[in-house]
Design brief:
It is a single chain. By secondary structure, this protein is of the alpha/beta class. The protein has one domain: Glycerol-3-phosphate (1)-acyltransferase, CATH 3.40.1130. About 50% of the residues lie in helices and about 15% in strands. An eight-stranded mixed beta sheet has the order 4-3-5-2-6-7-1-8. Strand 3, helix 4 and strand 4 form a beta-alpha-beta unit. Helix 5 packs parallel to helix 7 and helix 7 crosses helix 9. The longest helix is centred in the last third of the chain and has 28 residues. It is globular, with a radius of gyration of 20 Å. The two termini are about 30 Å apart. InterPro entries: Acyltransf_C, Plipid/glycerol_acylTrfase. Belongs to the 1-acyl-sn-glycerol-3-phosphate acyltransferase family. One of its GO terms (biological process) is phospholipid biosynthetic process. This is Phospholipid/glycerol acyltransferase domain-containing protein. It comes from Bambusicola thoracicus.
């Protein structure tokens, strides 16, 4: 809601009509580059516009399970939680993925295969690892971590129909932030979406990992093209905003925020420094939880 109604940020898809016609009509795994602070918001916006926001799944940090409201909500939505240590996560992740194998609604399962957001320092270290393993270096991405991807493909084979590769960038070489969105700043997001049938992905774990490395080399080439030409290949699509999201937000904001504002006014009106500090600490903790509520991967 903040992205599309408050800031007015627009998301344009670059794909083909056959691929777009499958959106919201099949179970898929989504691979998204992790270069921006608000890339997950762009992803959630697209899932909402194609009617699958409620059935979208991610790998989330286990710490979020214990955050009031966020953790409880995600637990009942069958989000897969992880510690980002494969030796400890393996059984838990596999169990969570198997629960999704018979999910009754069309599901989009998001993976950030890079594992963390791109920075120059992380990129330098990642490319040192690539060189040590004899893998081609990437210019715009970190070396993908293959365990989460190969495990998801193995566990969801027979349920998932395809992998959507999504490469995201912003016009004008912008690097948007959550703070900018809260201030109502408008950005223009471009998302290149390619569909790969799951049967085209090797069943062998090592071959599937090699497939993923090749995919990221192609993503790197797409980013290079975007930086040079200012656009992605393919036909442009602009899914319209749905007024329901605004109405839904306004309703729940009225129901939930009115008591909070009333309580906050009472706290400040009391003049008690202890109460005021406790209230500000509660608000700050809630804001920190919001910033941390991002997917993770192995």
């Amino acid at each position: 809601m903040l992205l599309e109604w408050w800031s007015g940020t627009e998301c344009t898809l670059f794909s083909d009509e056959a691929t777009v016609n499958t959106f919201g009509k099949e179970h898929v795994i989504i691979i998204l580059n992790h270069n921006f602070e608000i890339d997950f918001l762009c992803g959630w916006t697209m899932t909402e516009r194609f009617g699958v926001l409620g059935s979208s799944k991610v790998l989330a940090k286990k710490e979020l399970l214990y955050v009031p409201l966020i953790g409880w909500t995600w637990y009942f939505l069958e989000i897969v939680f992880c510690k980002r240590k494969w030796e400890e996560d393996r059984d838990t992740v596999i169990e969570g993925l198997k629960r999704l194998a018979d999910y009754p609604e069309y599901m989009w399962f998001l993976l950030y295969c890079e594992g963390t957001r791109f920075t120059e320092t992380k990129h330098r270290i990642s490319m040192e690892v690539a060189e040590s393993k004899g893998l081609p270096k990437l210019k715009y991405h970190l070396l993908p971590r293959t365990k989460g991807f190969t495990t998801a493909v193995q566990c969801l084979r027979g349920t998932v129909s395809a992998v959507y590769d999504v490469t995201l960038n912003f016009r004008g070489n912008k690097n948007p932030s959550l703070l900018g969105i809260l201030y109502g700043k408008k950005y223009e997001a471009d998302m290149c979406v390619r569909r790969f049938p799951l049967e085209d992905i090797p069943q062998d774990e090592k071959e599937a990992a090699n497939w993923l490395h090749k995919l990221y080399q192609e993503k790197d080439a797409l980013q290079e093209m975007y930086n040079q030409e200012g656009t992605f290949p393919g036909q442009q699509f602009k899914p319209p905003r749905r007024p329901w999201t605004l109405l839904n937000f306004l309703f729940w904001a009225t129901v939930l925020l009115s008591p909070l504002f009333t309580f906050g006014f009472g706290v400040f009106a009391s003049g008690s420094p202890l109460l005021i500090l406790a209230f500000l600490g509660f608000v700050g903790a809630g804001n920190k939880s919001r910033e941390d509520a991002k997917p993770c991967d192995m």
